Amino acid sequence: MIKMIFKWFGPIALLAALVIGDQIRINRPAHKYRLAVEVETPQGSKSASGVVAVHPDRSYSRRGQTRTVGDAVFVDLGGGKNLVALLAHVDNNKLVLEDVSYVALRAYIEAAGKRVSFNEMSRLSGVVPVKGALIPVLVTFADPANPGTARTVAPDDAEAALGKGYRLKGLTAEVVPNGYWPLDFGGVLGEPVTRGIEAKLPWLNGADSAATALRAAGLPGVDGIDAQEAFTRK
After folding, report:
1. Fewer CB within 10 Å, N- or C-terminus of the chain?
2. Is the distance from CB of 154 to CB of 107 less than 8 angstroms?
3. CB neighbours (10 Å) of residue 219?
4. Could you count the other beta carbons within 10 Å of the beta carbon of residue 102?
């Protein structure tokens, strides 16, 4: 009996290692990046950031698409004011969710002034500005507990939505250590994806609440997307 167990131990262990290795290959992000947002306020500069993971489709079906996992960035501006950088962009008068997967890539290309490969992103370093069309949709909530109080914030005219003395200083992207899924313990072992938007916007899991917020902000094409993915993605 013992001989029989040892006989099969090697093949079973090898099979387990292959399965685990394949799951790591499939689920490991291509890269992670930190999106940081800084706002000038009458009380001084306020900022916040969040790490998102960009996953290409490595499944055997090859039917999926590159996707982003993470949360929108919520900046507490003090005095009851806030700014939220959504996981969404507006393109051709339509709200799109896919472009957030390429924000860091395109920001590094713009900063370098030359082609940067998607596959080499995890090896890059340094902080680069996120400008122009790369800036995601920005919104503010007069009452974070009420999705119907959402309003868009123009990157070049934050005062119109936030009040006098408020100005968007800028957004930046920075590639962070990727790690080896599921060992996201921080530092060289991989920066964990930032969570917490649901605590800031307590209505987020409510039925149709995310869509209510996007409509209140006057954003186009809300009915054609999963509105919650503008705020959080698992």
Report:
1. N
2. no
3. 22
4. 17
